[in-house]
Specification:
Amidase signature (AS) enzymes; 14 helices; 482 residues; binds glutamine; alpha/beta
């Protein structure tokens, strides 16, 4: 095995600049690792080896000529298979997109290409990003590299597992209600859900457009900041995208937290959390306090409603969004149909898996007749209430601290009830309010990692990265002092 894969992204940047090794060598090292790991982990759904090697050679040529496109030129990565890449299959873990090849690049993909990054392939996900464990994919389940009997979390489980298994130094995922942060927590890595609209959604297959974001998975907060720097910013192809106010998201890394006000969400701590998660929250609180932050307990009385509101919104939007998959325009088409209605019905019945069907049914139910007011209307009112509570709390705090999930990765096949359960509320909060949130891992010797979540006001990613970086370093020191 080529040991290069274990080096950090910062180390790769430095070594590629110093021409200690080439992008081709690095890319081949990751491709070999993928070949070695894939039969068991199943984090990738497609690979583009030849394209990757060609792109790496072009990057090496640029470096030889002293004209790299950016500090990331030549760095390999992978993207979740609900993000469009020209010329590659785009399947969203679904049979309904069988055979579909994307004719265009998502904006994040073209931005990474302009930075010189090298795409290795596409990663597995719960069908249409609906799920919490990467077990609902038509491509089969992805296994957690830390313990293959356990789930990776989801829906960006393939992207999280690829980083955790050293198959890629960073990956892209999507986070509608936790799908980057929760698998990051389960796989022991960093996962960022950016401010809604900070990264263009052009080319991300929509699940619930008022909640969807493209997120980043990496080994550290500073690496995550690097990738966000390369992908952030307004895009004329996504009318909801906005320019990011800060020009360098790494700028605050290294600053201390003295005087910073960090709120610990009372309703998020307590009943239902595992012993490790409680310990992680206590250690994070004590560490931040010892670094000079002012830790205060805050209350979000309507937190308990967040997951119900999230499911009403996301299912209603999914029901409408997924109507485009009708057997005519994209991918799978049922055979020998007698009428156009039969073609629609059978293509959708055969093409979608159970979880997607459940959401489409519930979404249409929530929007029909008097349910429109009773379910969807109440969810709209409650979302406003939750946003108001959050903005009042964030006018008194710089950041909030809460767990990412209530436990560590659970056993595969056993916790289907994780869907629609209270576990989701820890991640759906930031999603409903469009706020950025980052999960960083808390490792305890011999145990599976759990996630510590930091959340801030819109466009506070630079602050999130700097606090997460301090916390990472303090937790590492604590671990190595043992
Ligand atoms: N677990 C949530 C769901 O199943 C999150 C999904 C997501 O963020 N894409 O809807």
């Amino acid at each position: 095995m080529n040991e290069l894969i274990f080096r950090s992204l910062d180390e790769h940047k430095r070594a590629l600049t110093a021409r200690e090794y080439s992008s081709e060598e690095l890319t081949r090292a990751y491709l070999e690792r993928i070949e070695e790991k894939e039969p068991s982990i199943n984090s990738f759904v497609s690979l583009c080896q030849d394209r990757a090697i060609d792109a790496a050679k072009e990057s090496d040529e640029r470096r030889r000529n002293g004209a790299p496109l950016s500090a990331l030129d030549g760095i390999p990565y992978a993207a979740k298979d609900n993000i469009a890449v020209a010329g590659l299959p785009l399947r969203c873990g679904s049979r309904i997109l069988e055979g579909y090849i994307s004719p265009f690049d998502a904006t994040v993909i073209s931005r990474l290409k302009s930075s010189g990054c090298v795409l290795l392939g596409k990663t597995n996900l719960d069908e249409f990003a609906m799920g919490t464990d990467t077990e609902t994919s038509a491509n089969g389940r992805t296994k957690n590299p830390l313990d293959e009997n356990r789930v990776t979390g989801g829906s960006s489980g393939g992207s999280a597992a690829a980083v955790a298994a050293y198959e890629a130094p960073f990956t892209l995922g999507s986070d509608t209600g936790g799908s980057v942060r929760q698998p990051a927590a389960f796989c022991g890595i960093v996962g960022l859900r950016p401010t809604y609209s900070a990264l263009s959604r052009y080319g991300l297959v929509g699940f619930s457009p008022s909640l969807d974001t493209i997120g980043i998975l990496s080994r550290s907060a500073s690496e995550c900041a690097d990738i966000m720097n390369a992908t952030v910013g307004a895009d004329s192809r996504d009318a909801t995208s906005r320019p990011f106010p800060a020009s360098d998201l790494r700028a605050l890394i290294g600053k201390d937290v003295r005087g910073m006000r960090i709120g610990v969400v009372r309703e998020a701590i307590g009943e239902g959390l595992s012993e490790e998660v409680l310990e992680a929250m206590q250690v994070a609180t004590d560490t931040l306090r010892s670094l000079g932050a002012k830790m205060t307990e805050i209350s979000l009385p309507h937190l308990h409603a967040a997951y119900a509101v999230y499911y009403a919104f996301s299912s209603a939007e999914a029901a409408s969004n997924l109507s485009r998959f009708d057997g005519v325009r994209y991918g799978y088409r049922a055979e020998s149909c007698g009428s156009i209605e039969e073609l629609y019905e059978r293509s959708r019945a055969e093409g979608f898996g159970d979880e997607v069907k459940r959401r489409v049914l519930f979404g249409n139910f929530a929007l029909s007749g008097e349910n429109r007011e009773k379910i969807y209307g109440r969810a709209v009112a409650m979302r406003k209430q939750i946003i108001a509570e959050l903005s009042s709390v964030l006018s008194r705090c710089d950041l909030l601290l809460l767990p990412t999930a209530s436990t560590h990765a659970y056993r595969a096949g056993v916790k289907k009830s994780a869907l629609y359960c209270k576990d989701d509320l820890l991640c759906t909060l930031a999603a409903l309010a469009g706020l950025p949130a980052l999960s960083l891992p808390y490792h305890r010797d011999g145990k599976l990692p759990v996630g510590i979540q930091l959340m801030g006001p819109a466009f506070s990613e630079d602050r999130l990265f700097s606090v997460a970086h301090l916390l990472e370093s303090a937790l590492d020191r604590r671990e190595s002092a043992k």
